[in-house]
Amino acid sequence: MEDSRNLLDPNRSSDPLNREMFGDLSVESVNPERPPHDEPTQTDERLENGAPVIRASTKNRHVAEPLSSSEKFGHAYHRLLLMSDLIALLISSVITFVLVIAIGRVVDAADWAFAIVALAPVWALIAYQLGLYGQVERQLDFDYVAELMPIIFASTVWCWFLVLVRSFIVVGYAELITPAVMWVIMVPTLLFCRSAARALARSRPWHRRPIALIGDAATVAFLDERMKRHPEWGLSPDLEVVRFDGQQGWQVRRHSREDGPSMVSEIHQVEGNDLMAIALTSLVSDAGIDRVMVAGGIDRLSARTELVHSLTNRGIAVDYVSGGPETLYANAMPQHLEGMSLLSSRPSYPRPMGAFLKRSIDVALSAGFLLVTFPFLVLSAIAVKLDSKGPVVFRQPRTGLKGEMFQICKLRTMCDGADDMRESLWSDGIHGRDGGMLKLQNDPRVTRVGAFLRKWSLDEIPQFWNVLVGDMSLVGPRPLPLDESSEIEAKYKARQRVRPGITGPWQVMGRSDIPMEDMLKLDCTYVTGWSLSEDLRILLRTLSAVSGKSGVY
Predict the structure, then answer these.
(1) DSSP character at residue 496
(2) E strands of 400-499, at which residues?
(3) Which of 396, 398, 394 is nearest to 412 (CA)?
(4) Mean pLDDT computed over 148-167
(5) What is the crossing angle of helices 69-102 and 177-202, to 10°?
(6) Domains of the chain, residue spans
(7) What is the pLDDT of residues 113-129, one digit of tens each?
């Protein structure tokens, strides 16, 4: 049986609790400390009649063991990100040198190269301390939005070091123009190179990390579906330990890529939190898995705590699903009260000043965007007109602020009269007739030009007019057609407290792949936990959502 290993790098935060956005669940990650190799550990060799048989074993500290999947992932990812950062520094320094020479500044090539090479290790140290390498293991959805502010801060500090080095060693005086140009170039270059590194990582075998899911059957199935929708997380649920409603024992299922989960054994309920925790821990350890996601199924807090302790003591990282969308509020705050972790959430509806700022941003950005994209709008409109019969602009009644109806504007991407065909296509939708939302993977109504416009979201440009006149906002809940809006339950009516948006949590988390029920939960979570910073994050993530192909039908 493999020895427990430390899953934390020194550059990680000392705080063992790491809260993440995982679909529409909140996940808290606990990473274990590595126990000494010569420390006796309890191992469960088998289950007899549902009771664990336990014996003590002592590990030889001199025995070399293979790296776990998390360690392979961390080591490879760290090197890849470091390489991408050094490439970004090289590219930025070359572009900066060319631009500075072009504007008539005098820069010695040898001195400039010496300063960049001398400070390359300083960048690695700064990025290391800010968690730009270690966070890739802890945070499942770590992307360019999450690393934007750390990169801006790291670039600022590094460029000041560049000023000092060139001042004392190379130039002899504090020259600021060249480092300032370097800063402007290196921030987007670093973000681009790191995004390319993540794309490359997703194609490597080590990016796939086996994970065990422990919890009630419904939540485990819920998580399993989300992992399938988001392969970029790199999680593969190889082991599932589930409990069905009304049952005391656990069903153990192993995952097959071809056939999905299949039951292999059962664990009967045993007396004592420690015995059950050891039994579940041993199942995970024997399967060679070093990360577990605990998703309900354990009623008592003491039993959950014992399980987390048992897993982390064995060297297994734990992600605890602490709740549904109510824990996803942008202003949710983790607290620690005498060793007990709390996640505090408060409703945060847009206040008058917040609503004013949001509306001001909507008007300014939508007006500017319409001016910039006007040539693309004209070309797209001509293509729509030449491709098929019908109006260029498609108008449809949608439900907006406070349930009031408005006419949404989009470039027509379907054949004329497509709206009249909706009723006959419900059974062919990817979510079924009862899914509440009509989405088809191969919609027969979409025209040739329409498919291209949808792929790049160019058909959405006229909606910025809806934003400008006040029918919509840049960020908000998805504006629903009247037939879909009429099916919404009363508990989701909170989504009508704000203007619907061109983009929102549904668009950046999966678009059409997300079922109606989950979309409504995300919308309500956005409304009740609204903040300007969350709007900014959604706008930034929309860039990658538009350029990607996932969920675009």
Answers:
(1) G
(2) 405-411, 473-475
(3) 394
(4) 94
(5) 150
(6) 17-33+217-344, 71-202, 352-547
(7) 999 999 999 999 999 99
